[in-house]
Design brief:
- Helices cover about 30% and strands about 20% of the residues.
- The protein contains twelve helices and 13 strands.
- The strands form two sheets. A seven-stranded mixed sheet has the order 8-9-7-10-13-12-11.
- The longest helix is centred in the middle third of the chain and has 15 residues.
- The protein starts with a strand and ends in a 17-residue tail after the last helix.
- The structure holds NADP nicotinamide-adenine-dinucleotide phosphate.
- NADP nicotinamide-adenine-dinucleotide phosphate binds next to helix 1 and helix 12.
């Protein structure tokens, strides 16, 4: 049994981590930290967990956790994680951080994308950005792991094989990612734009250009292809609570044959349980659809080719709280501990939802 703690446990990602860890056969949940709910039962904030735990939230105490936990998940806002995580990492705990604070390998990128100077560039070098389907072996040997942003991992899983396989000839300077995101992607803290009357029924562009997750996507794709990659991303808030649909447009001249695109995906994902290829010829569910992955750690991936314009459309769908965050983090923990990466994560998606 590994003793695990969750920091920022009152938030949406924290709650999802608790849900997964409470039914994980190899994890013992020893602490769930919260500033505002310390002393309260976890199920008061996460009512779905009533009857599954009698744990109470506690205040963050880095020194205390060093003695009582083996591994900590940090689900804090970016800019806050970078204050708490070093205390745990320096004390020798294994850490999985879900914020952006340890995702970018180059500290010079933090002022550019996040507006602050990274205080611990030495730690950045030690963190592995974990996407098990892409860098499983690196995650296995790591003690410090970060998990990508939800729109980033969703887009990356559709794009990575197409950039890795150079024989496809994808134009690396013109990759366009269009993401549709459910409301839980913005976290649990209410604001005017997340207020029901304002958020319900929207298809609202909230970051048509300059989305921060472009940096992570470019970092991963460049390391796979060995060359600079330029990603242009637009994000829209849509009328879902959970879920992301990423539609990526790539340009290839001459356009590839479907069999070659299949080969690229199979080469990367043939042993990856959590990536499902979806490209059916008939029925209503022919391509990835977020509605069909909700509650699960699956990422559904599919594609279409528009021969006339040389456009390759790569589609992917995740539950942003699971494969987009907590599920990917637990999958990473499994690898770090030498467990089967599927341990505690094989739940089927909900349908209908
Ligand atoms: N939502 C997603 O789909 C998603 C996906 C991937 C990654 N992430 C990342 O995961 C992290 C958590 O996201 P979330 O959606 O769970 O956000 P959230 O619902 O707002 O939860 C964040 C939690 O962090 C704690 N917190 C807030 N401000 C803090 C501060 N100044 N100092 C210490 N703790 C603070 C809060 O708990 P208390 O106030 O009770 O202390 C809060 O419950 C973020 O970095 C986010 O970018 C989110």
């Amino acid at each position: 049994m590994v003793r695990v703690a969750v920091l920022g446990a009152s938030g949406y990602i924290g709650g999802e981590l608790l849900r997964l860890l409470l039914q994980h056969p190899e994890a013992e949940l020893v602490a769930a930290t919260s500033r505002t709910h310390a002393g309260e039962y976890v199920f008061r904030v996460h009512p779905n967990l009533r009857g599954t735990t009698e744990l109470k939230f506690s205040s963050f105490d880095g020194g205390g956790l060093a003695g009582s936990a083996d591994l900590a998940f940090a689900a804090l806002p970016h800019g806050e994680s970078v204050k708490a995580v070093p205390q745990l990492a320096d004390a020798g705990l294994k850490v999985i951080d879900l914020s952006a604070d340890f995702r970018l390998s180059d500290s010079r990128m933090y002022p550019v994308w996040y507006g602050y100077d990274h205080p611990r560039p030495d730690l950045l070098e030690k963190f592995v950005l974990s996407i098990p389907e892409i860098n499983r072996d690196k995650v296995k040997g790591a003690s410090l792991v970060s998990s990508p942003g939800c729109t980033a991992i969703t887009a990356i899983l559709a794009l990575a094989p197409l950039l890795k396989d150079k024989s496809l000839g994808v134009d690396r300077d013109h990759i366009v990612v269009d993401a549709k995101v459910g409301s839980s992607g913005a976290g649990g803290k209410p604001s005017l734009s997340t207020h029901f009357s304002e958020r319900f029924n929207v298809v609202r562009p909230y970051k048509p250009a300059g989305h921060r997750h472009s940096a992570e996507i470019e970092q991963v794709l460049a390391s796979l292809s060995g060359e600079r990659v330029a990603v242009s991303m637009s994000a829209h808030a849509v009328n879902m609570v959970r879920g992301i649909l990423s539609t990526s447009h790539l340009f290839v001249s001459p356009p590839p044959k479907p069999i070659d695109v299949w080969k690229a995906y199979r080469a990367m994902y043939s042993g990856s349980y959590f990536v499902r290829m979806v490209r059916d010829k008939q029925g209503p569910f022919r391509l990835p659809d977020p509605k069909l992955v909700i509650g699960s750690n699956f990422c559904d991936v599919g594609f279409e080719i528009e021969e006339r314009t040389g456009r390759l459309v790569a589609l992917s769908a995740t539950d942003n709280l699971v494969k987009g965050a907590a599920g990917n983090a637990v999958q990473s923990m499994n690898l770090m501990l030498g467990l089967d990466e599927k341990t505690g994560l094989t739940m089927a998606p909900l349908h209908p939802v």
